[in-house]
Design goal:
Two copies of one chain form a homodimer. Chain A has 692 residues and is mainly beta. Chain A contains seven helices and 33 strands. Chain A folds into three domains: 91 residues, Nuclear Transport Factor 2, Chain: A (Roll), CATH 3.10.450.40; 124 residues, Nuclear Transport Factor 2, Chain: A (Roll), CATH 3.10.450.40; 348 residues, Beta-galactosidase, Chain A, domain 5. Chains A, B: Its EC number is 1.4.3.-.
């Protein structure tokens, strides 16, 4: 086994070392493991290593940061209560380097095994069974429970570790386990103590839409009789699948243009970066460089909150923090060749542990592939009719996560012009509740009979730790502003001014498309040789709607990060989470972005971090049912005076010889043919004018 | 020859008929033709025909609208002045149906032959030659002139037909006609009378950036000595082309999934529409239907204005209206297989005429092809680990236009979920002027030594004539608004309200991402059977920056449409152009959107038209030189309660069997393989709970 790079994920043997160290350190307790993953080296030591690596000064012994594991686990007490604990273990010395135990105010994310607890507790609870028995469910249906985070406790409510269960019925008559239960929502929510493994209470749900306001109990016992199947699995559909989608194959006969080595290193078209993966953030990118020059130190999805806008209790507690309450890495799909991606694919695996700390492989959680993105640049010389055109190739690093009903697709897309696009796609199944026959609701849309899809928001936060030609950067806000007509400066009134201001102190601000706000990640110590301006990357923050909940509400208080589009902070070790480290059952954001900017740090020409908050307000359409077509948001990072010309100028404009002409009737193709020039050109070229 | 559909482009024989009718109608004059193209039938008669067509009630004789041609031409007078004239000719009866002559206040777009006039006039002008001779140009360089519209005359300035010429030098020493002259800008602009074919004057240009304000003449005679080559043609590059872009082939062994017939009809995946093409708008789409249901009556790019923000005269007149001054159809590229598109391509041609009315073929001005757009929808059942995933196939109808230095790529992308995305890409070469050595400017960026790329905006307008389940539609503004915490209605403060208001009168409003403004194209007479809401298509107007020029300026006055994002008008026959019919040399928008809304028409439940204004403020980067990587803007039209579920639910989730695994080193590929399941699933499925 070669020496791992400091950013390589921990290997199975390393996980086992960490597990064993923790087990041995608690000889008298039962340990329930939650996660074990690489403890990324501190930035100071990692940048020292990276600097040596890139200057090819790696000597032996190399100044290599220690190889350490984060270990998250519960220590089980005799009274069934559990102490959530985090340790750092040094793999080489097999020693526990640090340990911190937390109390009930700090609730870790939900372990997958806790899902089972909710299901098992309900299944064996006579109270729950009795509540269910009051519904006259159709014959052959079974109950399914989707465990959810409890959400933010109400003001004054103090709770231990709770989970709630959204309940549905599934048509089990034909035995297909993929029959869609979300089409049959049941109007009750059991609340379970996950430590004591007890049913705490059952909340009853309003089903009347508007007419009965916050009341519940308006439904008949035959609560599902007006519902109907909402299947998406092809074998269960009542409609014929399309037979006219002809194959579209992506073939790369010479293989991909990228290289993956060292477990974490990806090289493609002058880009070079490391890929990390951890249970909370999923994919992380590190040490992102173009043609040897540093651009980003670290990129990650930091948090996402999904507050629902239905005020009828207990729906106000439907608010997931999908990273802090769940974990994107934990929820990553095992991707499949030819379904999730086309072409030549490199999949990367990760490792999981169970509650005992046993290691298993999470296959294909990341895919790496290339795709074509249309014309990259083109110019036709109208004098000669000569067109020079290149296509834009992209490298995609993608991960798909399933969080109960919803799916999110996260992708980093590198291009040949020095740009990076960060893409999110939302798909999957809407979170729905029961509604009485014939009723509608201002809080959502009836997407299937008896099924109310509640209005909600998805608010994401991307964390960007820039390293534009070095680790000391400055964030600028650049705006294009009107100038009044003025006889001296602007005599005809057509001028506008571009005003750029450095962000001198940590703080937050909002997108401003009306002033064309561009956020520049700049290095003021390095000037572009042509323009004289600081080398930069541009980022236009998307002006998506911010959180709508009343600022005094628990929903807004626990997601303060969702109040602004852009946050600028000074780098602080371990400060990775926009909504704070502990979001599960939080009543207010703690240690998140609001606290980070309160330090009032200087941020000019320093180790600065940018956080981009964006999202979508999702008022469901009937078309989003039963599985919604993707909703896409893209963030663009583009070089601005970083290079001395278009970096894609050297992309060859090769004609693809496998493209063919269609004959128009869709049944066959003509052989590949030359494009004919117009018999008489419809352009008028000019002659050169010689200088006398 | 079969009877053409009323929306089929005119055929060559039809163009000749129209030409002959006009020539014969002016026996004593010289006629210089500008364009001949289909006069689209009036909406009343066309909708009658379409209704019959779709109800399969086409009888013989069919109530077919008359087949007519628009003929635009100049009648040349003895004094060389020209009367711009428009006639409509009935092809069947060979009669001139109508004629209108215009005076100098109404200047038509620039004919391609007028480009040549500018070049020829300058070439033969001793005054121009003398002005050039004052520059000490490098040996072997020649002068190139890019003819441009004159722009808006200054207040009080009355002119006949003027064009201006942007002047550059080209290194002709190696004889390559594609050497890039834009890297050598010359600081003078000749102004030419296109009718009299005379040089009117030469404007001298400021080259000092800021220091000398509006002054010119600060440059040395060696005005290009600090410039350097800016080539993009591969044979002229001083850098090596990349050799690591391995082929990515799109193969469709069973042919495309679309059908093109009748010259104009395209059918694909339940979509069915007609494609038109005319000299001004380029591609137009008509009678767009999904699964037999009408969605749009007509879609077109209506106008684009490109005002420059450099106040130094005469740069204030750099403002192109690329549709009204030039014409997207006239400037369409002849697309090439394997360069402009991959896969199986169907190209559509158009026809051009020259000044004599002779017809020639414009080959491949439209391309039609399919592309893959990643995951379309996906859900993984966490209980069974079963993932159902479909890919999103798109049908693209694309056109690329070259307007002197710039390129624009316009594409309509249909998807399988009933959505339509309208895409624009800007690429090509920046419009640049000379700047003295070592200087910078607040009005632009130095992108190459001696080359100042001026700040500018591109403001587009898309015209959308909706027909959502019929021709009577209502536009709604739907906003998501916060609700205060309230003990009765919103006890926990998490609720928000969705407020929808019909646009009752013609008018304009702006994008509003902070309230999640969605524009709904609705038919209030047809209700969704599930939700009970009006069937609709949703459109989120992009909140791009509007025109920055002072509202009192000529630049802003002639582009009033660029002051608002969304305009709603009542349908009026022939009202197609956001900036008015005549933009060339306009001093104010006439007959454009500002005038249209002044009619104060009722727009509810009526034949209503939506106009979307969007664009980009382009403050150039060094990376935009010498040819800029594409800048993309997308507009999305998505069904909202138009269907009774996700219309892409019937897209089969077929695994693509040609995708293969990469081995990671980029040199070869493993054979196509099954994806292994994790040895121990990292998900925890729950058991069904039977009902007692």
């Amino acid at each position: 086994m070669s020496i791992p790079h400091p950013l390589d994920q921990l290997q199975a043997a390393e996980l086992s070392v960490a597990r064993d160290v923790i087990v041995q350190a608690h000889p008298d307790s039962v340990i329930l493991f939650r996660s074990i993953y690489l403890d990324e080296p501190a930035k100071a030591s990692l940048t020292e290593f990276l600097t040596a690596e890139h200057s090819r000064n790696l000597s032996d012994p190399t100044p290599r940061p220690p190889r350490q594991a984060n270990v998250h686990y519960d220590v089980v007490r005799a009274d069934k209560s559990q102490i959530y604990t985090e340790s750092v273990v040094d793999i080489h010395t097999k020693r526990e380097v640090s340990r911190q135990a937390y109390d009930a105010a700090d609730q870790p994310s939900i372990a997958l095994e806790e899902y089972r607890v909710v299901m098992d507790v309900c299944k064996s609870s006579p109270v729950f069974q009795e509540a269910i028995s009051k519904f006259k469910l159709p014959k052959g249906f079974v109950v399914e429970i989707d465990p959810w985070p409890y959400g933010g406790p109400d003001p004054g409510e103090v709770i231990p570790r709770y989970l709630q269960g959204l309940c549905f019925a599934k048509d089990a008559r034909n035995g297909n386990p993929d029959a869609n239960h979300y089409g049959y929502p049941l109007p009750l929510i059991p609340v379970v103590d996950a430590h004591k493994q007890e049913l705490i209470r059952i909340d009853k749900l309003a089903t009347g839409g508007t007419a009965d306001g916050l009341a519940h109990g308006t439904h008949s016992p035959n609560v599902l009789d007006h519902c109907r199947p909402s299947d998406y699995a092809p074998e269960l559909l009542d409609i014929k699948l399309r037979d006219d989608v002809k194959p579209l194959n992506v073939l790369q006969p010479e293989g991909p243009s990228f290289k993956v080595s060292d477990d974490s290193l990806i090289e493609w078209q002058k880009w070079r970066f490391r890929v990390g993966f951890n249970p909370r953030e999923g994919v992380t990118l590190h040490d992102v460089r173009y043609d040897g020059r540093s651009v980003f130190y670290r990129l990650s999805f930091s948090e996402m909150t999904v507050p629902y806008g239905d005020p009828r209790p207990p729906f106000h507690r439907k608010q997931a923090f999908d990273f802090g309450d769940g974990g994107a890495g934990r929820a990553a799909n095992n991707l499949a060749l030819g379904c999730d991606c086309l072409g030549v694919i490199k999949y990367l695996d990760s490792l999981n542990i169970n509650r005992s700390g046993d290691v298993s492989v999470a296959k294909n959680v990341i895919c790496v592939h290339e795709q074509d993105n249309g014309i990259g640049w083109k110019h036709t010389n109208f004098r000669t009719d000569r067109a020079v055109v290149t296509r834009s190739r992209e490298l995609v690093v993608q991960c798909v996560v399933t969080l109960a009903n919803y799916e999110y697709i996260f992708a980093y897309k590198f291009d040949q012009a020095g740009g990076l696009t960060v893409e999110t796609r939302a798909t999957g199944i809407l979170s729905v509740v029961n509604i009485d026959p014939g009723k509608t609701s201002p809080w959502g849309n009836v997407v299937s009979p008896g099924v109310l899809a509640q209005n909600h928001q998805h608010i994401f936060c991307l964390r960007v730790d820039p390293a534009v030609d070095g680790y000391k950067n400055t964030i600028f806000r650049e705006e294009s502003l009107p100038m009044p007509l003025d006889p001296e400066i602007n005599p005809f009134g057509n001028a506008y001014q571009v005003v750029s201001q450095p962000v001198k102190k940590s703080g937050a601000f909002d997108a401003s498309p009306s002033t064309n706000l561009v956020v520049k990640l700049s290095n003021t110590n390095v000037r572009n040789p042509i323009s004289g301006r600081p080398v930069s990357y541009n980022f236009v923050p998307p002006a998506t709607q911010l959180i709508l909940a009343d600022p005094r509400s628990i929903a807004a208080q626990r997601a303060k990060f969702a109040k602004h589009h852009v946050w600028v902070t000074s780098y602080k070790e371990g400060e990775l989470f926009a909504g704070g480290k502990f979001t599960n059952q939080s009543q207010a954001e703690r240690g998140g972005l609001a606290d980070a900017i309160a330090r009032d740090d200087d941020t000019e020409d320093s180790d600065v971090v940018l956080w981009s908050v964006f999202g979508l307000t999702h008022n469901p359409r009937v078309e989003d049912w039963p599985v919604m077509p993707i909703e896409k948001i893209e963030l663009h990072f583009r070089p601005a005076d970083f290079f001395d010309r278009n970096p894609a100028l050297d992309v060859p404009g090769v004609r693809n010889m496998t493209s063919v002409l269609a004959d128009g009737n869709g049944t066959c193709c003509a052989a590949s043919g030359e494009v004919q020039r117009a018999p008489e050109s419809h352009r008028q070229g000019g002659e050169d004018i010689p200088i006398r």
